[in-house]
Amino acid sequence: MGLSSLEIYKKLPQTNCGDCGHPTCMAFAMQLAEDKASLDECPDVSDEAREALAAAAAPPITDITIGVGDYERTLGEETEIFRHDKTFFNETGVAISVSDAADAEAIEERVEQIDQLTFERVGQVIEVDMVAVTNDSDDAASFKEAVEIVADNTDRILILVSEDVEAVENALEVVADRNPLIYAATEDNYEEMTEVAKENECPLAVKGEDLNSLAELAEKVKDLDYENLVIDSGARNASQVLADQTVIRRKCINDKFRPFAFPTITFASGETPAQEIAQASTYIAKYAGIVVLSETVELSEMLPVLTVRQNIYNDPRVPVTVEPNQVNEIGEPDEKSPVIITTNFSLTYYSVEGEIPSDAYIIPIDTDGTSLLTAWAADKFGGKKIAEIVNEETDIGDRVDHNKLTISGHVAVISGKLEEESGWDVVVGPREASGLTNFIANRWEDELEA
Amino acid sequence: MAVEIAKQNWDGQVEELTIGATEEEGGTRTSTVTVGGETTLPFLHFEGEIPNKPVVALEILDEEPKDWPEPLAEVWGDVWDDPAKWAKKCVEEYGAELIALRLTSADPIGQDRSAEEIAETVEEVLDAVGVPLIILGCGDEEKDNEILKAAAEAAEGENLLIGFAEEENHSTIAAACMVHDHNVIAQSPVDMNICKQLNILLTDMKVKTNQIVIDPLVSSLGYGMEYSYSVMERIRLGALRDDDMLAMPMINFIGEEAWDVKETQASEEEKPGWGELSTRGIQWETAMGTTVLQGGADILVARHPESKENIEAGIEELMTESSYE
């Protein structure tokens, strides 16, 4: 529950009655600390202690659900300041804004463009999650109309950007069931805006002028009994956004500071796509729950931003792998090109791929994403296994007219077994991938004729 | 409600390091570049000092590149057969404060140029521009020991930054840098322990801690960048927690990595869903550069002048003071 057994023990009745099934209160506290017991088992624990323990056990950042259906997603629930300490869990939502000051046709076109921002790379789909409709017209009717057009043209999550309670209320008449994010409750409108959010059960962004006013306002909204929140410190300059994001995250994780225990929303304020991309990359790396862009709508501009997110939120506890047990073509290989056998650990694979100067085939063997020597030591890169994969799962035999597989000099020891099991000749290449350039340029011809 | 700002007290400081030497300092450079010196995590001005901004260098080769994609050919194609002209264009047209010269022509399976020829090239580039230089080998260990030694000698007094010293091959390069008064890049393969071990080996040879730059070997955005990013964060945290052997500025060769992947090379016909090639690569390099800045990069080596400009604009914004009253 995130507390040490001693901290829990201090809040227990310390009667050592044994009614909880544990011999002493300390033993019970130790089980609680490891989540192996429930506080309900103790008959004498006070309500006050129960509350204190529950608050301490609550996740440092609340999880907020936004959107519905395929695009429904969770924000927040993070527990780390640095990804290498465990992982970042819920990817930053990436939103693009649409102004309600544009005419209907222009809105439709822009939404269509945004709706195409879905990419497939290295076997994963990455895409823009949200569309933020901004009430630039200052007119409630235009806002409602724009929201309706956007909603009709995309299934992506909606953010309703208006501080005008009436405009938000009107727009919600058409899209409340899509669980959009309302942006935002401010010092001036928070009572009514919170009421509207509550009635429609939609997440609500709380916007302060700085960290102090944000904390104050978040507390006020919580006092109105609403905690389905996203927070914004109001900063727009990258330097201040970075500072605020860092302080918010630290206050949540280190101090359990409850007014900030919500996912954040940030706005890229750059005037060009390049400026926005620089800001968005920074905010994604540094804790933003949502980042809203307005200038970056081209495919070529959004692909890098979404890739930054994909990288940063990649779980460092799980090795990154490439699709195993298949033939990958580098350049334009033909029937005389070398066939290189390696593992499916991304770093290994790409260091091999990166050193190949000309045309070749690479077959990454499934080693659960471990490197060459690790895989060999763990019996995941043996002659028999490689032979089976090469002969039964790939068509490499049809693609080349030679009979040679190249392996790294590090695992030369498997060549006998591999030859015997596969029927291919094994060429022992250089130990390091960096030697491949030289190998292919100077030795491959000879090997081919040997 | 007054929120108590969560400031961290760091004990350590990143070493400050200068590249280049002017006439008064025994060189011929018209400007120098100083990096490092931070006492806080990247751009967190509210809890420490950031005396020097990160710098973006432009990378040039000493021979015509073979496989650089179209957007790079477009900006450099008219000068890339002549490293002196190329360097001049970097400085005069694109305002480069620092240039990285990669000596690929020495590659034994390529042109195999001799150490003497390489030394001449280095001198030509030094004559052509006044900014400080980073000098990089061709990647063949044996040959690099030869040519980098010659380059270090030819550029004595210029206080260059030379790479790479590696765990298994560092003594020749480190010695050349010491004898001829240059800084050295210590490259480790995405591994904080090897990084630290290499710095220990170098300082055991009496290389000064403020003459070493760490290259943690960053992979391209989309291809393992996050590994390097986390290693960089851990190296920087080590420095701030007062580990002397991790307290060096860091360099990232973002251009070399960013322009070597499908996303920056594939044509629009091949990948219509990825948009225009002309902007895709530049933004790829921009996004990669700005992200690794958050890992603690002090020197970024880029290949496209526009991404250099984009990243510099981002740095400028991040260098404005953040504060809490």
TrEMBL record, chain A:
Cross-referenced PANTHER family: ACETYL-COA DECARBONYLASE_SYNTHASE COMPLEX SUBUNIT GAMMA, PTHR36214
Superkingdom in the source lineage: Bacteria
Annotated protein name in UniProt: Acetyl-CoA decarbonylase/synthase gamma subunit
Sorted UniProt keywords: 4Fe-4S, Cobalt, Iron, Iron-sulfur, Metal-binding, Methyltransferase, Transferase
Signal peptide range: none
Domain 4Fe-4S, chain residue ranges per copy: 1-59
Chain positions recorded as 5-methoxybenzimidazolylcob(I)amide binding sites: T342, T348, A433
GO MF assignments: 4 iron, 4 sulfur cluster binding; iron ion binding; methyltransferase activity
Annotated EC: 2.1.1.-
Ligand binding ([4Fe-4S] cluster): C17, C20, C25, C42
PROSITE patterns in the cross-refs: 4FE4S
NCBIfam families in alphabetical order: PRK04165.1
UniProtKB/TrEMBL annotation, chain B:
Superkingdom, natural source: Bacteria
Pfam family, one: CdhD
Species in which this protein is naturally found: Acetohalobium arabaticum (strain ATCC 49924 / DSM 5501 / Z-7288)
Positions of the CO dehydrogenase/acetyl-CoA synthase delta subunit TIM barrel domain: 27-263
Name this protein carries in UniProt: Acetyl-CoA decarbonylase/synthase delta subunit
GO BP annotations, alphabetical order: one-carbon metabolic process
